Amino acid sequence: MSFHDPAHTPTLCVVQVVRAERLSPHVVRVTVGGEALRALPDLGFDHWFRLFLPRESGETSWNLPKKLDMVGYLLQYKRIPRDVRPILRNYTVREFRPHALELDIDFIVHGDPDAPDAGVANRWAQRAQPGETVAFLDQGIGYRFPADTTQHLIVGDETGMPGIVGILRDLPRDARGLAVIEIPHADDAQAVDAPSGMEVRWIVRRAETKPGAAALEIVRGFVPTDPTTLMAYIVGEQELPTSARRHLVSVGVPKPRIVFVGFWRLGRAQY
To answer: For residue 146, is it within any domain?
Structure first.
């Protein structure tokens, strides 16, 4: 499953890097800015976008489609010559400051950017310089919950952290439930503005443990107050959302009330 907001009209923004800073062992925050951000809606929650990064060698074309549906992707993006076509990845708005025309993107980085298995976005984020051009096409919000929701279950590994922190920030202040964020190092935890009724657990993953396994163990022990009015958001390494969804369905949570997305797969350089 992937996020899809049929009511949202995407906005294409070609912007420049303002600054880049390492916040913690596995998080690099890249701030972008520019006049194009005046047209961007401030949606909050887990507002996500298609991010276009410059090629690692040679020139990059920024003549991009303004709508990235199947037609736009196949007929426009894919028609850009391969040697100048920007690299495409999916990311989440960490923080948007419309008054300053700035937007923060948190990149999860691991190891040496020169390592053979380092992903393109991993390498770029660790080397990003002010003035570089990037572009993004916003895609709306993935986590929407009905008015009858009485409990939230928000779960993810470090790749889901930006969206989870945004959701917790923007939930109604009377929201209740549990949020679980599994991270590779204790210093990767971030300040969270969560409703007082939301329990937030930061779980530090042991080095020998598969990503997502610790968070999944907690989900399997979670007992909803009322499964029919629970709303769940589970993202991260593919096994976490798929197995967690299977468990929640088995205890009575309706499938439409489970938002789940595998952001990456172990053994494959996605970022």
So the answer is: no
In a domain, 270, yes or no: no
Residues near 174 by beta carbon (within 8 Å), at least 6 away in sequence: 195, 197
pLDDT, one tens digit per residue, over 70-112 is: 677 778 888 999 999 999 999 999 999 999 999 999 999 987 7
Is 271 among the domain residues?
Answer: no
> Can you give the residue range of the structural domain that contains 129?
12-140
- By C-alpha distance, which of 232, 225, 266 is closest to 246? 232
Q: Where are the beta strands (DSSP E) in 159-229?
A: 177-183, 198-204
Total number of domains constituting the chain: 2
Question: Residue 4 falls within a domain, yes or no?
Answer: no
Backbone angles phi, psi at 151, to 5 degrees: -155, 140
Regarding whether 123 and 30 lie in a shared domain, the answer is yes
The SS3 call for residue 45 is coil
Do 186 and 117 fall within a single domain?
no
162 CB-contact burial (10 Å; exposed 0-12 / middle 13-18 / buried 19+): buried
Confidence (pTM) = 0.93
pLDDT tens-place string over residues 142-198: 999 999 999 999 999 999 999 999 999 999 999 999 999 999 999 999 999 999 999
One-letter identity of residue 89:
R
